[in-house]
Design a protein that fits this description.
510 residues; 15 helices; 22% strand
Length: 510
């Protein structure tokens, strides 16, 4: 697909202190549209919303009557334009220009009319290499389009006013010059294919979460099978994948290769898909993602923004632990959230308008750091098992989650901890997540793929000759619900720790 137009969605913020905005290139898939709608908070119909066409090369979009309900119509128009041949695109541009020239200054064309102009273009002729009245007049005379000039001697031709001839014919034809082409628009007849209410149902490509361009495995040169490649749109049934494999001459879809990848989840990119052996995982994620509400899909992408984007397995792990986070879609940045946080903890009779003039970027960033929360394009997301509105001291040292892992007390962070940040007396390790979150993961010194968090322990671990400790259901992290600073953790004797989560012999009661 090629970009036919770029639009901007915007929604006024709750206290009228700016707008959420998102740009979207059309045509777009349903998932791409949803992503832009959620980033711009355009789904909030109780707020003031605006939709504007920022750019369109083929036609002058300023003549279109565009409203907040025009998004899917504009996308269908872009899809229709994308499907036109180069010649038909020129014809459309000419017919559109001719119709808008007839409009009064304050009148606008309905998107429905523009969509219908993409139909019936076969009846419209086009002349190439004709871009002005002079060239048009010469084209008419030389090709005997007017019987008045058929028998004129060649010696007289040089005295003809080609410009006037072309101008006269263009006015009769309702003709338009588009680039290096001339289009007589009087041959176009208005179409009424689209009634303004019932858009065609989405195609599999339009509604897909992921799409892969799949081909048979080549024997030597990868280009030798590229002409056979077909798009596989996920989620797909086993029968659909088997049918495509058979069509491509393979026993099963895993025997094929893919050449391109399109994702409706921006955080899941092509480099994360290693081969068609990942197809079952990818398809299951597409199925699960499709079953979520739009709100939950947005939250998943916000959790992914925290750093689970390096592998497909990491994305699946993020999906499984998504409910361990809190999410606020209203706050676009730390400053927005800071004001909402203050209002949340203020007395019920507090006048929130006092907050409108506050510019508190430094303190706002400090608050997110204290809470372990992260700013994303979709809103603010908490740390795992954290609360966005927990009370926190201004000068409080960073707290970590207190857990038990491999029978030892430890501190957990889902953000990376560097060795320079580790207090004296503590030891840092990384957690790797598996298919079943931490239950089949591992503890290693450094994890770069399938990273699940970092831990601090009082005693070093013996990672063995293989350099890792395999985790199972009994040894994987158990979260106590408590938090503790690294300094306090380093100085705490857990054999005498007074907490309902520990017993007096040093074991954690979880």
């Amino acid at each position: 697909m090629s970009i036919q137009m770029t639009i901007e969605l915007s929604t006024e913020k709750p206290r009228h202190n700016g707008f959420y905005t998102a740009q979207l290139d059309l045509p777009a898939t349903d998932m791409e549209i949803e992503d832009a709608v959620r980033r711009a908070r355009f789904h909030n119909k109780s707020a003031r919303r605006y939709l504007a066409i920022e750019e369109s090369e083929l036609f002058d979009a300023s003549y279109l009557a565009v409203g907040t309900d025009s998004l899917h119509e504009l996308n269908y128009l872009a899809r229709r334009l994308d499907g036109l041949s180069d010649e038909d695109a020129v014809k459309f541009a000419a017919v559109y220009a001719a119709r808008t020239e007839e409009f009064p200054r304050d009148a606008y064309m309905q998107v429905r009319s523009a969509i219908n102009m993409t139909y019936g273009l076969d009846a419209v002729p086009v002349a190439s290499n004709v871009s002005n009245n002079y060239e048009l007049g010469k084209f008419i005379v030389e090709n005997d389009f007017d019987e008045r000039f058929e028998n004129i001697p060649d010696s007289v031709l040089e005295y003809l006013d080609y410009r006037a001839i072309g101008k006269s014919f263009r006015e009769q034809d309702g003709g338009e010059f588009i680039g290096r082409c001339y289009v007589p628009t009087r041959y176009y007849e208005t179409q009424n294919v689209y009634d303004g209410e019932h858009l065609p149902p989405p195609s599999p490509e339009q509604s897909a979460v992921f799409s892969l361009l799949v081909a048979p495995a080549p024997e030597s040169d990868p280009d030798e099978v590229l002409d056979l490649a077909q798009w596989l749109h996920l989620p797909a049934s086993v029968e659909q994948m088997d049918a495509l494999a058979e069509q491509l001459g393979a026993d099963k879809i895993q025997d094929c290769v893919f050449y391109d990848f399109k994702s409706g989840i921006p955080q899941i990119e092509k480099y994360m898909i290693h081969s068609m052996s990942d197809i079952e995982k990818l398809n299951k994620l597409a199925e699960d993602y499709s079953s979520l509400t739009a709100e939950k899909r947005t939250m998943f992408k916000a959790v992914m923004e925290r750093g689970y984007t390096s592998t497909l397995d990491g994305a699946i792990a993020a999906f499984k632990c998504m409910d361990n986070y809190e999410f606020d879609f209203e706050a676009e940045n730390s400053d927005d959230f800071f004001k909402k946080y203050l209002a949340y903890h203020a007395p019920t009779n507090f006048d929130n308008r006092w907050l409108d003039g506050i510019r508190s970027e430094v303190d706002a960033d400090r608050l997110l750091q204290r809470l372990g929360a992260t700013q994303t394009p979709y809103g603010i997301v908490s740390k795992q098992f954290g609360s966005l509105f927990a009370l926190t001291d201004y000068f409080e040292a960073e707290k970590f989650e207190l857990i038990e892992v491999v029978g030892q007390p430890a501190l957990f962070s889902d953000s990376r901890i560097s060795d320079t940040e580790v207090p004296n007396g503590l030891h840092r390790y990384d957690l790797r997540v598996g298919d079943d979150d931490f239950c089949d993961g591992a503890i290693e010194k450094n994890v770069y793929v399938n990273y699940g968090g970092s831990i601090l322990l009082q005693q070093p671990l013996d990672l063995g000759a293989d350099g890792y400790i395999q985790l199972d259901e009994d040894s994987s992290p158990n979260f106590t619900g408590e938090e503790m600073t690294a300094e306090k953790f380093a100085s705490t004797d857990f054999t005498e720790y007074d907490s309902e989560d520990f017993n007096q012999t040093g074991g954690m009661r979880l």
